[in-house]
């Protein structure tokens, strides 16, 4: 029976050599052409700026920033950054006027992410103005500090506190301005809420909340850390054959299981590895790396997804799992697998059989995320899922 969610992976597996013809010489023109295509479709009107970093124009600005940071694209740096600034300036104007302050505080869907990316782009351009969006970002902590500031669950990644913390982590990583944003963050609200979360996926549920808590564990008390680790163990124990159900207690149906960043194994991998740079808990739980590796096998089998090229529930999101596993293990097999997934994105089979994406320019569902992946494949030692690092 044909799998409705993914293409069959007919690629032979790694036999000791990476694919030829995927070096910078071949890949840079492909990336540049993809960016040209994206820029032809991204809206340039203030009224079309909704969707935040997830699927709004702001995600394109982030992609341009990311590409401009890569030395292989130095000749394009100026023009990409200038375009990024035009797009993010428009997004900032849009979100400044957002009447719902909770949406202004949202990371992937609202203002917090847009302000953070604006600060990064301004800084790259050498503009002292980067302090302005940074100040707007910092002031948002007051919005998301009250424990139930959202009705839909105040802790998740897209619009809740985990998202705010994630944006702060990106700022720490890219701008080195940790204390500037950390002072106002109330982590305790987050850890109190852990046990209430009932959805498991990275995008909306427990795993991204836990990842953020692990990323800030130096700010937690001993008892809170124990609670976080108990929750991590609990989540890991929900595994069913290298995957995790989208909701606690659900039974995964093997034939058509979800293997997405937003639901299922790929996003979970990142959650498990959030503590990687912290050696003590990492060695306390060596079995987590084994779980990651085994989940990576599932992604190799079922990760050629039919929902488009993107990073949220598409082929590039699956391929980011291999780049993460490469960084964790140093095994070139994972670069090879990522190369195969990159290759697949340009096949007729993929073009003919994958679902069309409404906003093809978008960072999470469309080509901007794919471009980030293709660039990261050229620099696998620095690769990381966009805006969601586990190596800070
Ligand atoms: Zn998704």
Walk me through this protein's architecture.
- InterPro entries: 6hp_glycosidase-like_sf, LANC-like, LanC-like_prot_euk.
- It comes from Haplochromis burtoni.
- It holds the Pfam family LANC_like.
- Belongs to the LanC-like protein family.
- It contains 20 helices and no strands.
- The chain has 392 residues and is mainly α.
- The protein folds into two domains: 235 residues, Glycosyltransferase; 143 residues, no CATH class.
- The site of zinc ion has 4 residues, from loops.
- Radius of gyration from CA coordinates: 20 Å
CATH-defined topology of the largest domain: Glycosyltransferase
Rounded mean pLDDT is 88
Q: What ions, cofactors and ligands are bound?
A: zinc ion
The arrangement of helices and strands along the chain is HHHHHHHHHHHHHHHHHHHH
What is the number of E strands? 0
Query: Helices and strands: which structural class?
Result: mainly alpha
Ends: how far apart? 43 Å
Spans of 5+ residues with little confidence (pLDDT < 50)? 273-283
Secondary structure layout plus pairing:
Blueprint: H1 24-41, H2 52-55, H3 57-68, H4 77-96, H5 101-104, H6 111-124, H7 131-139, H8 141-144, H9 161-175, H10 178-182, H11 187-193, H12 206-215, H13 222-236, H14 265-272, H15 279-284, H16 287-302, H17 315-329, H18 333-344, H19 348-353, H20 367-378
Helix pairs in contact: 1-20, 3-4, 3-6, 3-20, 4-6, 6-7, 6-9, 9-12, 12-13, 12-14, 14-16, 14-17, 16-17, 17-18, 17-20
């Amino acid at each position: 029976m044909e799998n409705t969610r993914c293409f069959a992976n007919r690629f032979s597996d790694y036999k000791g050599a990476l694919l030829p013809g995927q070096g910078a010489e071949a890949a840079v023109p492909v990336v540049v052409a993809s960016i040209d295509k994206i820029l032809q479709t991204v809206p340039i009107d203030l009224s079309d700026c909704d969707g935040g970093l997830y699927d709004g124009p702001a995600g394109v600005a982030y992609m341009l920033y990311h590409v401009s940071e890569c030395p292989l694209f130095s000749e394009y740096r100026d023009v990409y950054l200038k375009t990024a600034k035009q797009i993010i300036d428009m997004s900032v104007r849009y979100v400044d006027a957002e009447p719902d302050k909770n949406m202004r505080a949202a990371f992937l869907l609202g203002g917090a992410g847009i302000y953070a990316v604006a600060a990064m782009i301004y800084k790259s351009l050498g503009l002292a103005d980067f302090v302005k969006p940074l100040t707007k970002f910092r002031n948002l902590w007051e919005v998301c500090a009250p424990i139930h500031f959202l009705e839909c669950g105040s802790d998740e990644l897209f619009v809740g506190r985990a998202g705010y913390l994630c944006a702060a982590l990106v700022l720490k990583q890219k701008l080195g301005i940790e204390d500037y944003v950390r002072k106002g963050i109330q982590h305790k609200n987050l850890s109190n809420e852990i046990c209430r979360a009932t959805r498991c996926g990275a995008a909306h549920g427990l795993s991204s909340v836990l990842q953020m808590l692990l990323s800030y564990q130096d700010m937690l008390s001993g008892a809170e850390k124990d609670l976080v680790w108990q929750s991590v163990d609990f989540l890991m124990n929900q595994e069913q054959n290298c995957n995790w159900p989208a909701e606690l207690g659900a039974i995964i149906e093997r034939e058509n299981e979800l293997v997405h960043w937003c639901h299922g194994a790929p996003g979970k991998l990142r959650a498990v590895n959030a503590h990687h740079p912290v050696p003590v808990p990492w060695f306390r739980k060596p079995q987590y790396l084994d779980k990651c590796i085994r989940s990576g096998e599932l992604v190799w089998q079922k990760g050629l997804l039919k929902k488009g090229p993107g990073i949220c529930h598409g082929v590039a999101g699956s391929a980011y799992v291999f780049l993460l596993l490469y960084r964790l293990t140093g095994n070139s097999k994972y670069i090879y697998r990522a190369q195969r997934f990159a290759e697949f994105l340009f096949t007729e089979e993929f073009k003919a059989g994958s679902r069309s994406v409404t906003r093809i320019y978008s960072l999470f569902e469309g080509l901007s995320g794919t471009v980030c992946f293709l660039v990261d494949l050229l620099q696998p030692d620095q690769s990381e899922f966009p805006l969601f690092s586990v190596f800070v």
